[in-house]
UniProtKB/TrEMBL annotation:
Residue numbers spanned by region Disordered: 28-47
Coiled coil (UniProt feature): none
Protein known as: ABC transporter substrate-binding protein
Superkingdom to which the source organism belongs: Bacteria
Extent of the signal sequence: 1-27
Organism for this UniProt entry: Paenibacillus sabuli
Start and end residues of each DUF3502 domain: 440-509
Organism classification: Bacteria, Bacillati, Bacillota, Bacilli, Bacillales
Amino acid sequence: MNQLLRTMLLLSLVAVLLLAGCQSAEQADSDGASTPPDNASSSAAAESTGALEPVHLKYYFFGATKPGDEAVFAAINAILKKEINTTVDFIKVPNGDYTQKMSIMVNAQEEFDLAFTSPYYLNYFEHAAKGSFVDLTELLPEYAPQTYAELKPQIWDAARVNGNIYASINQQIFARQSGFSINKMLADKYRFDPASVRELADLIPFLEQVKAGEPAADTDQLYNAQMKNQVFTYFYPYYEWESIGGTDVPGIASSTEARPRVFNEYETPEFKSFILTLAEFQKKGLIAKDALTRPTFDATKYAAAPIATLMPGIEEIVKKTHDAEQYVIPLGEPILTSPNAIATMTAVSSTSRHPERALMVIEQLNTNKELFNTLVWGIEGVDYKKVGDNRVESLAGAPYSKAYGWMFGNEFNSYVSGTQPDDVWEQTKALNDSATVSTLFGFSFDPDSVKAESANCAAIVNEYRAAFNTGMYADETEQKYEEFLAKLKTAGVDKVLAEKQKQLDAFLAN
């Protein structure tokens, strides 16, 4: 009798559990919500696309729109649909307008899902601190486990703001070494020694020779001024400097000193020399006269350009950019800093209705080689052809323009091309591992107590930056420079510097 009773109770319990499970499933269906995976693998959660409801996302990044974009994005969506039942609007924003446009969208709480961010574009530290991005600290290991496991904990620490991670780091070159590229044909023609270049001013004699000796139609933009970018920061690794809390707000420190002092980078001889040299460039006609209003620039006309990041295979990259063989001049030695480790990231907007699915897209970008190379290279037979197991060549007249692999996920999944060595990504990993590690590595600044002063200083930097970068102030540059520094003082730059120093001292003490 006891045995019979136990059996009946057991059957009753099973029936209750089954009913509860059915009701939970029905509730999930009626809510229209997908059940999150209960383990660390997003692929396990999507053994079939039927396990996930169809979702459509919006993904913003910078770049120029090209005729072949639509076909490539359709091919990518076919892969995403198959793998995680997801489609994505890939939305390009012109390079120079990206931060401004995205900041307006973020501040307006416009709904979107994914966006490129860094200390330089759509300031990661600022937007993480004010809640523009989803906290991914717990979500990354759950919905993008392979992406998370690929990087050392030390690298993830560079992305922490108040202890939390607010964007996925794109795997690429982390060590930074800056430099210049110089058109090889022109340098050889005018017998210019690239090794003589140690600073920006050293380019003037060469560029003047080209200006005088080449047709006027080819010399209207001999130097790449990158008017809206933080070009001065390209040279930080050379100076062994490191930005703190993004590049729009003054306040940096030495990467190698045991007890670094925070200082205003705009109040240094290096910055003053930088803007005075660019003013000379402008007066000599080495930078486009209409640089501030010109809608597009022709990179094939540049006789010289600054390079933010040297890396194995860089010669092939700059050759493609400028459509000509280039000399590459390195400055300083490679160094690993927090801003450089997080120089390219993908964030999930706090307005996203599907942050988990957005993380699954990030996982696909980092682990699905077919998807990644479609996004970078385009469609095989249309935009490129394979000339080896992992080597490709872009096709002449291809409708799709090769994208920056470092912008989207794990660049080490990319095909190689041209003069890049077959083991370029192994070399890149080795360089990352061997670079000098900054004293400040892992430090992140919390701007909350100087939020107003930081915003005011950033507005002033942005007010003057494009004109400084293009030398447009010409003979008035020194006067404008003093005016610029005075405005920063009024905006509260000293208070910002003091707070940065206070937080840095506390970090070093621990």
